Amino acid sequence: MADRPDDERLNDGLPDDKQLDDERPEDEQLDDGLPSDAVSEAERLTHLARDREDTGAETEAEEYRAERERLLAEHGFVSRIREESARTVLVLHPDEWVEDGTIRVERIEDTDRAVEIPLTGAGDPDDWDEIDEHNRAVVERVRDEHGDVHGANAEAFADFMGNHYARPVESATRNEVAEFLNDYFPRNAWPTGEQKKTVNESVELVFDCVSRTSR
């Protein structure tokens, strides 16, 4: 399925004050919205599709888009691409909000269920494959050396830097780290209580891991 046209924009977006319940069971998370691994995979497949489209490999691009739609359909979601003046945004939202290809505002009861992901950033999107490979390698080193909790946090940070800024994790500025900790992580990573307690240390471990590897 090709990307849907921007028939109607979700004007409300995601609220800044969304709070996650540490005790929320996994099945309730799936009812409320997409699980974090599905969001990350949808981002990855979208970047791959855009990369292939840019090189003229439309068949491969369509395969990645179709794989993304199959993944989202398992959770009752669909995707569309919204082109803005300064950026391109991937929007993931419940299929029930759509009728004849158009989002019906009267069907939207909870905007928190939607996810909006900027696809363009400060880096060069053409280098996304190489950047993602590098960031994933850093994640695996953190996980191997410090365990699964820090590894999961490092993976969320890699998703943030790769998908939002198309840059290596170690290039994050102080403001970007703050954006990750205060905005992206609580709203998009579905962190456990243990992840929340250790996320600051996890980010430090990411930088430390890269620094030691590059010596």
Would you summarize the structure shown here?
This protein is mainly alpha-helical and 215 residues long. 53% of the residues lie in helices and 10% in strands. The longest helix has 21 residues.
Write the layout of secondary structure elements.
Blueprint: H1 26-32, H2 36-54, H3 58-73, E1 77-83, E2 88-94, E3 98-99, E4 102-103, E5 115-118, H4 128-146, H5 148-165, H6 174-188, H7 193-213
Helix pairs in contact: 2-3, 4-5, 4-7, 5-6, 5-7
Keyphrases for this structure?
215 residues, three-stranded antiparallel beta sheet, mainly alpha, 5 strands, two-stranded antiparallel ribbon, 10% strand, single chain, 7 helices
Explain this structure:
The chain has 215 residues and is mainly alpha-helical. Helix content is 53%, strand content 10%. The protein is built from seven helices and five strands, in the order αααβββββαααα. A three-stranded antiparallel β-sheet has the order 1-2-5, with helices on one face. A two-stranded antiparallel sheet has the order 3-4. The N terminus is likely disordered.
Q: Specify the structural class.
A: mainly alpha
Give the strand content. Answer: 5-15%
Mind summarizing the main beta sheet? 3 strands, antiparallel
Radius of gyration: 17 Å
Task: Write down the overall mean pLDDT.
Answer: 76
Shape: globular
Low-pLDDT stretches:
1-31
Distance between the amino and carboxyl termini: 46 Å
Helicity range: 40-55%
N-to-C order of helices and strands = HHHEEEEEHHHH
How many E-type strands? 5
Query: Order of strands side by side in the largest beta sheet?
Result: 1-2-5
Q: Total helix count?
A: 7
